[in-house]
Input
Amino acid sequence: MNRRESLKTLVIGSLASSLVLEGCLPKEKEIIYENVWKYKYGRTPEELERDLKLLNQVFFSKEELNTIRVLANLIVPPTNEGNIDQAEVPEFIEFIVKDTPSFQGVLRDGLKWLDKTSTENFGKDFVSCSEIEQKNILDKVAFATRKKNKEEAFFSTIRNLVITGYFSSEVGIKDLGYKGNQPNVWDGVPEDILKEHGFSYKKDWNYKFLDPLKRNDIAEWDENGNLIT
Output
């Protein structure tokens, strides 16, 4: 089982943030709200109001979000199904840290540590490092002990957020191969099974079994009790 398959198994088993939104006009806020927070069904008016308030705040800088994007792509590399940007993982993490302030210090300090360590070891910030150099840094914190130090806690936290953000998105669910409940086209009991039990359909019987294209139609009968639709 490769690394991605392992992540899938774990998942199955268990903002435009670079813009300074506070200065937006009401119409601009509305556009941002519609684009960034698409899945707002099931929210009460109070919850929607709170979400919009959070969306109109900025926590991470553009540079920090870019580091998160690079880091997220290392944790969950792109596939034919999609990638971190399509899943809007950086935007998801931006929203979560505003919704759950306890994440803020852990992630911001961790991002600073990444750049500090990169500069000390390779003379450049984390984003500017090669993938081999980036993984060299991450290997030191990716396998946390039971008592995590703060760098290990940072990586464990952001890894969980990246995996949650990706695999709860549309492209992530496709990547998992999850289909959910889907209607089938059923054209009756197979003829060999009918014969085996001594049954058969009447010759004048038109098969009127489940058709997914008509699954929302309401059945109708004529005055003699014959099925019309």
